[in-house]
Each structure stands twice: as C-alpha cells, then as structure tokens.
Write a structure and sequence with these properties.
It is a single chain. Helix content is about 55%, strand content about 15%. β4 and β5 form a beta hairpin. By secondary structure, the protein is an alpha+beta fold. The protein has a 5-stranded antiparallel sheet.
Length: about 210
C-alpha cells in the first residue's frame, strides 16, 4: 500500500533538521579548543616571570657577602704612628721670646737643631721615626718634645728615652749643650749627677744611719 505524500514530506523534513543540527555542533567545537589554548598561555608567562624573580633574588644574595667582606678589611687597616709626648730636656743656651712662636724662624731652626738626637734614639730603638719640637720655655731653653714610633710595634717607655738622651749629651756638648733631662742634671760624660741641694740630704741620711 503506497504511503501518502504528506508522510514522505514530513520524513524528509525531520531528516534535514537532524543533519543541520549535526553540522552546527561540529562547527562550534574549534572555538572551545582555542579558548583552552589562550588560557594556558598566560600560565606559561607567569612561570617565566617567577623564574626571573628567582634569578634576581640569587643575584642579591651573591653580592651581599662581598660588600661585607670589603667593610671588614677596611676597618682593620691602620698606619697611624704611636706618639710618646712630653719628653723634656734643657740646653744651656739663651732663651729669646720668638721661641714662643712656633711659626718664627728661631723656633723652626730650633726644631732642626734637636734632630741631632734622632740617630742616637734610632740606634737604641729601630722602630723610632722622628723627634718633634712642641714648644719652648725659658730657663735657659727648655724643650718640650714628642717622639713618634711606627704603627703596631712595641714602643719603649719614656724613662728609656731619657736614658738615651742623657748618654747622647756627651757627644753634643758643642752643638746642643744638654744640661737637664726631665729635670735631672747631666754632666759632660752623659751621666746624671747629684744636685747641690741633694748632696747635704745624703750626708744627713748617712749620719742618721750610723746612730
């Protein structure tokens, strides 16, 4: 029995609708993959940025110890000389008021004149550098000086320096006639001598010892 014409037409319409629906689903699939690729791309960029930050942090850590090491070396470096001040001796020469002025020609000449003591002090103490005139005062000529020694060395005490100056006096009687070293009189032989005031005291002490 033959089917009516309208049945065949309905069947064809249903089949056409199914084919169109299948084509539409196939065409919309690629955009979904494209969106997925775009989403994963920023993740790769973020990872790269993190690696750059790690590299920067490592660079900072490596340079910090180097700066600290430089600071330590500088703080331990020292070349300042060691100074022994107030080394006082007197010469039997006429005092003039221009010796009170450290800028005067007389004071400068006196500064050079006391350099005669330097070879004697250096011979006794190899670390000795120089003898400097600080000031002059009257009473013949009283010299207040200071002695400079090398850095980071053992320096002598002032008593040892006075002993060297006293011994040097016997060789300098004509050019630098030293008569007192630290208030103690010296003779031409370069040895300390007892003052006239001290001699009677020693005699009295001796008499008391016999009683």
């Amino acid at each position: 029995m033959a089917l009516p014409t309208w049945i065949w037409a309905l069947t064809l319409t249903i089949l056409s609708a199914q084919l169109i629906s299948a084509d539409n689903s196939t065409m919309t699939a690629p955009p979904s993959n494209s969106t997925s690729n775009q989403t994963s791309a920023p993740a790769a960029i973020q990872t790269t940025g993190s690696a750059a930050n790690q590299t920067s942090a490592q660079t900072t850590i490596q340079t910090t110890p180097s700066a600290a090491s430089t600071s330590t070396v500088q703080s331990t470096t020292s070349s300042a000389p060691q100074i022994i001040p107030n080394i006082v001796f007197t010469t039997n020469e006429n005092f003039t008021t221009d010796l009170l002025n450290s800028s005067s020609a007389a004071f400068q000449n006196r500064s050079i004149k006391i350099k005669q003591l330097e070879p004697f002090i250096r011979s006794a103490f190899p670390s000795f550098n120089s003898l400097t005139l600080v000031s002059c005062s009257s009473g013949s000529i009283v010299h207040n000086t200071s002695a400079a020694f090398g850095a980071n060395v053992t320096v002598p005490n002032i008593t040892s320096i006075y002993s060297v100056i006293s011994n040097a006096a016997k060789n300098l009687t004509a050019t630098l006639p030293i008569t007192f070293v630290n208030g103690i009189a010296v003779n031409s032989a370069g040895t300390a001598r007892t003052s006239l005031l001290a001699a009677p005291c020693l005699v009295v002490m001796s008499l008391l010892a016999w009683q």
